[in-house]
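Sample intake — Serine acetyltransferase
Collected from: Pontivivens insulae
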Amino acid sequence: MPHATQTADVTALDPVWAQITEEAKAMAADEPRLAGLVHASVLNRRSFEDALCYRLGQKLASGEMTEGLVREILIEAHQEDQSLGRKARADAVAVLERDPACHRLIQPLMFFKGFQALQAYRIAHHLLINGRKDMAYFLQMRTSEVFGVDIHPGARVGQGIMIDHAHSIVIGETAVVGDNVSMLHSVTLGGTGKEDGDRHPKIGDGVLIGAGAAVLGNITIGHCSRIASGSVVLQPVPPCKTVAGVPARIVGEAGCDQPANSMNHLLSVSDD
Protein backbone atom coordinates (compact mmCIF):
# COMPACT_ATOMS: atom_id res chain seq x y z
CA MET A 1 0.00 0.00 0.00
CA PRO A 2 2.79 2.56 0.73
CA HIS A 3 4.14 1.92 -2.76
CA ALA A 4 0.73 2.64 -4.32
CA THR A 5 0.42 5.85 -2.29
CA GLN A 6 3.90 6.91 -3.34
CA THR A 7 3.06 6.29 -6.99
CA ALA A 8 -0.13 8.34 -6.69
CA ASP A 9 1.83 11.19 -5.10
CA VAL A 10 4.42 11.17 -7.88
CA THR A 11 1.70 11.22 -10.52
CA ALA A 12 -0.06 14.13 -8.84
CA LEU A 13 3.11 16.16 -8.24
CA ASP A 14 5.01 15.39 -11.44
CA PRO A 15 2.81 13.87 -14.15
CA VAL A 16 5.53 14.36 -16.77
CA TRP A 17 8.00 12.19 -14.86
CA ALA A 18 5.30 9.64 -13.99
CA GLN A 19 4.41 9.26 -17.67
CA ILE A 20 8.04 8.96 -18.71
CA THR A 21 8.71 6.19 -16.19
CA GLU A 22 5.67 4.22 -17.40
CA GLU A 23 6.81 4.63 -20.99
CA ALA A 24 10.30 3.52 -20.00
CA LYS A 25 8.95 0.27 -18.58
CA ALA A 26 7.10 -0.39 -21.82
CA MET A 27 10.19 0.48 -23.90
CA ALA A 28 12.39 -1.91 -21.92
CA ALA A 29 9.83 -4.68 -22.32
CA ASP A 30 9.31 -4.08 -26.04
CA GLU A 31 13.02 -3.80 -26.90
CA PRO A 32 15.13 -5.87 -24.49
CA ARG A 33 18.40 -4.78 -26.08
CA LEU A 34 17.62 -1.23 -24.97
CA ALA A 35 16.65 -2.31 -21.46
CA GLY A 36 20.06 -1.54 -19.98
CA LEU A 37 20.05 1.97 -21.42
CA VAL A 38 16.46 2.59 -20.32
CA HIS A 39 17.11 1.40 -16.78
CA ALA A 40 20.29 3.46 -16.46
CA SER A 41 18.75 6.58 -18.00
CA VAL A 42 15.24 6.53 -16.50
CA LEU A 43 14.17 3.66 -14.28
CA ASN A 44 17.18 3.93 -11.98
CA ARG A 45 16.87 7.73 -11.71
CA ARG A 46 15.24 9.54 -8.79
CA SER A 47 13.56 12.35 -10.75
CA PHE A 48 13.12 13.95 -14.16
CA GLU A 49 16.05 16.26 -13.40
CA ASP A 50 18.24 13.32 -12.41
CA ALA A 51 17.36 11.50 -15.64
CA LEU A 52 17.96 14.59 -17.75
CA CYS A 53 21.39 15.25 -16.20
CA TYR A 54 22.34 11.59 -16.62
CA ARG A 55 21.36 11.56 -20.29
CA LEU A 56 23.09 14.86 -21.07
CA GLY A 57 26.17 13.73 -19.18
CA GLN A 58 26.36 10.69 -21.44
CA LYS A 59 26.04 12.80 -24.57
CA LEU A 60 28.33 15.71 -23.66
CA ALA A 61 31.20 13.79 -22.10
CA SER A 62 34.47 13.57 -24.01
CA GLY A 63 38.17 12.96 -23.55
CA GLU A 64 38.38 16.53 -22.29
CA MET A 65 35.81 16.08 -19.50
CA THR A 66 34.46 12.84 -18.09
CA GLU A 67 30.80 11.94 -17.88
CA GLY A 68 30.90 12.20 -14.10
CA LEU A 69 32.28 15.73 -14.14
CA VAL A 70 29.78 16.89 -16.76
CA ARG A 71 26.91 15.38 -14.80
CA GLU A 72 28.13 17.08 -11.60
CA ILE A 73 28.01 20.47 -13.34
CA LEU A 74 24.51 19.80 -14.67
CA ILE A 75 23.16 18.59 -11.32
CA GLU A 76 24.60 21.61 -9.50
CA ALA A 77 22.89 23.95 -11.96
CA HIS A 78 19.51 22.26 -11.46
CA GLN A 79 19.93 22.44 -7.69
CA GLU A 80 20.69 26.16 -7.92
CA ASP A 81 17.84 26.97 -10.32
CA GLN A 82 14.71 24.83 -10.13
CA SER A 83 13.19 26.66 -13.09
CA LEU A 84 15.53 24.64 -15.34
CA GLY A 85 13.49 21.51 -14.64
CA ARG A 86 10.17 23.30 -15.15
CA LYS A 87 11.32 24.68 -18.49
CA ALA A 88 12.59 21.27 -19.60
CA ARG A 89 9.21 19.72 -18.80
CA ALA A 90 7.44 22.45 -20.79
CA ASP A 91 9.80 21.81 -23.73
CA ALA A 92 9.17 18.06 -23.62
CA VAL A 93 5.40 18.55 -23.60
CA ALA A 94 5.72 21.02 -26.50
CA VAL A 95 7.58 18.42 -28.55
CA LEU A 96 4.96 15.78 -27.82
CA GLU A 97 2.10 18.11 -28.75
CA ARG A 98 3.61 19.60 -31.94
CA ASP A 99 5.93 17.01 -33.50
CA PRO A 100 3.95 14.35 -35.39
CA ALA A 101 6.97 12.04 -35.13
CA CYS A 102 6.81 12.15 -31.32
CA HIS A 103 4.34 9.75 -29.71
CA ARG A 104 5.71 9.48 -26.15
CA LEU A 105 7.21 11.90 -23.64
CA ILE A 106 10.24 9.66 -23.23
CA GLN A 107 11.32 10.24 -26.84
CA PRO A 108 12.66 13.82 -26.43
CA LEU A 109 14.55 12.83 -23.29
CA MET A 110 16.15 9.78 -24.87
CA PHE A 111 16.44 10.47 -28.58
CA PHE A 112 15.67 14.01 -29.81
CA LYS A 113 18.74 16.20 -30.18
CA GLY A 114 16.72 19.41 -30.44
CA PHE A 115 15.34 18.88 -26.94
CA GLN A 116 18.67 17.70 -25.57
CA ALA A 117 20.62 20.60 -27.09
CA LEU A 118 18.12 23.11 -25.72
CA GLN A 119 18.52 21.74 -22.19
CA ALA A 120 22.32 21.86 -22.51
CA TYR A 121 21.99 25.51 -23.59
CA ARG A 122 19.86 26.23 -20.52
CA ILE A 123 22.68 24.98 -18.28
CA ALA A 124 25.25 27.05 -20.18
CA HIS A 125 23.05 30.15 -19.82
CA HIS A 126 22.74 29.52 -16.08
CA LEU A 127 26.52 29.25 -15.80
CA LEU A 128 27.10 32.42 -17.81
CA ILE A 129 24.77 34.63 -15.81
CA ASN A 130 26.39 33.32 -12.63
CA GLY A 131 29.87 34.35 -13.73
CA ARG A 132 31.14 30.99 -14.97
CA LYS A 133 31.85 32.12 -18.52
CA ASP A 134 34.52 29.60 -19.44
CA MET A 135 32.42 26.61 -18.38
CA ALA A 136 29.44 28.09 -20.23
CA TYR A 137 31.49 28.35 -23.41
CA PHE A 138 32.79 24.83 -22.94
CA LEU A 139 29.22 23.51 -22.81
CA GLN A 140 28.30 25.59 -25.86
CA MET A 141 31.22 24.06 -27.74
CA ARG A 142 30.30 20.49 -26.77
CA THR A 143 26.62 21.05 -27.58
CA SER A 144 27.57 22.31 -31.03
CA GLU A 145 29.96 19.39 -31.60
CA VAL A 146 27.54 16.71 -30.42
CA PHE A 147 24.16 18.00 -31.61
CA GLY A 148 24.98 20.42 -34.43
CA VAL A 149 23.11 23.16 -32.54
CA ASP A 150 24.92 26.39 -31.64
CA ILE A 151 23.05 28.54 -29.12
CA HIS A 152 25.15 31.22 -27.48
CA PRO A 153 24.90 31.03 -23.67
CA GLY A 154 24.03 34.73 -23.60
CA ALA A 155 20.84 34.26 -25.62
CA ARG A 156 17.56 34.30 -23.70
CA VAL A 157 15.15 31.51 -24.60
CA GLY A 158 11.68 31.02 -23.15
CA GLN A 159 9.90 27.77 -22.35
CA GLY A 160 7.64 25.48 -24.33
CA ILE A 161 10.14 25.52 -27.20
CA MET A 162 10.06 22.90 -29.95
CA ILE A 163 13.09 22.61 -32.27
CA ASP A 164 12.26 19.95 -34.86
CA HIS A 165 15.19 17.99 -36.36
CA ALA A 166 17.41 20.81 -35.01
CA HIS A 167 20.38 20.35 -37.34
CA SER A 168 22.36 23.57 -37.95
CA ILE A 169 20.38 25.80 -35.58
CA VAL A 170 22.29 29.02 -34.78
CA ILE A 171 21.07 31.52 -32.15
CA GLY A 172 23.27 34.53 -31.43
CA GLU A 173 24.41 36.10 -28.19
CA THR A 174 21.80 38.86 -27.81
CA ALA A 175 18.89 36.99 -29.37
CA VAL A 176 15.67 36.65 -27.39
CA VAL A 177 13.16 33.86 -28.04
CA GLY A 178 9.76 34.05 -26.36
CA ASP A 179 7.60 31.25 -24.98
CA ASN A 180 5.90 28.56 -27.07
CA VAL A 181 8.04 29.11 -30.17
CA SER A 182 8.51 26.38 -32.80
CA MET A 183 11.35 26.24 -35.30
CA LEU A 184 12.69 23.71 -37.76
CA HIS A 185 16.22 22.85 -38.79
CA SER A 186 18.79 25.29 -40.21
CA VAL A 187 17.21 28.36 -38.61
CA THR A 188 19.59 31.26 -37.96
CA LEU A 189 18.89 34.08 -35.52
CA GLY A 190 21.96 36.13 -36.34
CA GLY A 191 23.53 39.53 -36.75
CA THR A 192 24.19 41.50 -39.92
CA GLY A 193 27.87 42.31 -39.55
CA LYS A 194 30.66 42.93 -37.06
CA GLU A 195 28.79 45.40 -34.89
CA ASP A 196 28.92 44.86 -31.14
CA GLY A 197 26.13 45.27 -28.60
CA ASP A 198 22.48 44.29 -28.99
CA ARG A 199 22.53 42.89 -32.53
CA HIS A 200 20.28 39.83 -32.74
CA PRO A 201 16.54 39.24 -33.28
CA LYS A 202 13.81 39.34 -30.67
CA ILE A 203 11.27 36.58 -31.37
CA GLY A 204 7.83 37.00 -29.81
CA ASP A 205 5.70 34.32 -28.17
CA GLY A 206 4.03 31.69 -30.33
CA VAL A 207 6.12 32.33 -33.46
CA LEU A 208 6.61 29.58 -36.07
CA ILE A 209 9.94 29.67 -37.97
CA GLY A 210 10.27 27.43 -41.02
CA ALA A 211 13.28 25.37 -42.07
CA GLY A 212 16.26 27.30 -43.38
CA ALA A 213 14.90 30.71 -42.39
CA ALA A 214 17.36 33.43 -41.38
CA VAL A 215 16.30 36.31 -39.15
CA LEU A 216 19.09 38.87 -39.06
CA GLY A 217 19.72 41.96 -36.98
CA ASN A 218 18.19 43.56 -33.92
CA ILE A 219 14.61 43.34 -35.17
CA THR A 220 11.38 42.27 -33.50
CA ILE A 221 9.25 39.41 -34.79
CA GLY A 222 5.75 39.94 -33.44
CA HIS A 223 3.82 37.44 -31.37
CA CYS A 224 2.14 34.54 -33.20
CA SER A 225 3.64 35.35 -36.59
CA ARG A 226 4.95 32.89 -39.19
CA ILE A 227 8.24 32.93 -41.10
CA ALA A 228 8.15 30.77 -44.21
CA SER A 229 10.90 28.24 -44.91
CA GLY A 230 13.96 29.66 -46.64
CA SER A 231 13.06 33.28 -45.91
CA VAL A 232 15.61 35.97 -45.05
CA VAL A 233 14.02 38.43 -42.63
CA LEU A 234 15.75 41.81 -42.37
CA GLN A 235 12.86 44.03 -41.21
CA PRO A 236 10.54 43.86 -38.16
CA VAL A 237 7.44 41.71 -38.51
CA PRO A 238 4.10 42.79 -36.94
CA PRO A 239 2.19 40.32 -34.76
CA CYS A 240 0.03 37.64 -36.40
CA LYS A 241 1.47 38.03 -39.91
CA THR A 242 3.11 35.63 -42.35
CA VAL A 243 6.32 36.66 -44.10
CA ALA A 244 8.09 34.90 -46.95
CA GLY A 245 10.80 35.48 -49.51
CA VAL A 246 14.32 36.85 -49.90
CA PRO A 247 14.17 39.43 -48.52
CA ALA A 248 11.02 38.53 -46.66
CA ARG A 249 7.83 40.54 -47.05
CA ILE A 250 4.38 40.25 -45.51
CA VAL A 251 2.28 37.88 -47.59
CA GLY A 252 -0.77 37.54 -45.36
CA GLU A 253 -2.12 36.82 -41.91
CA ALA A 254 -0.66 34.11 -39.69
CA GLY A 255 -3.61 31.87 -40.48
CA CYS A 256 -4.53 30.96 -36.89
CA ASP A 257 -4.20 32.20 -33.32
CA GLN A 258 -1.26 29.95 -32.43
CA PRO A 259 0.86 29.07 -35.48
CA ALA A 260 3.62 27.55 -33.36
CA ASN A 261 1.12 25.00 -32.06
CA SER A 262 -0.59 24.28 -35.37
CA MET A 263 2.76 23.84 -37.20
CA ASN A 264 1.08 24.76 -40.51
CA HIS A 265 3.79 25.94 -42.90
CA LEU A 266 1.63 26.14 -46.02
CA LEU A 267 0.77 29.49 -47.56
CA SER A 268 -2.85 29.80 -48.65
CA VAL A 269 -3.85 31.08 -52.07
CA SER A 270 -4.80 34.42 -50.52
CA ASP A 271 -1.29 34.66 -49.02
CA ASP A 272 0.40 34.24 -52.41
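Post-analysis note: The chain is about 45% helix and 15% strand.
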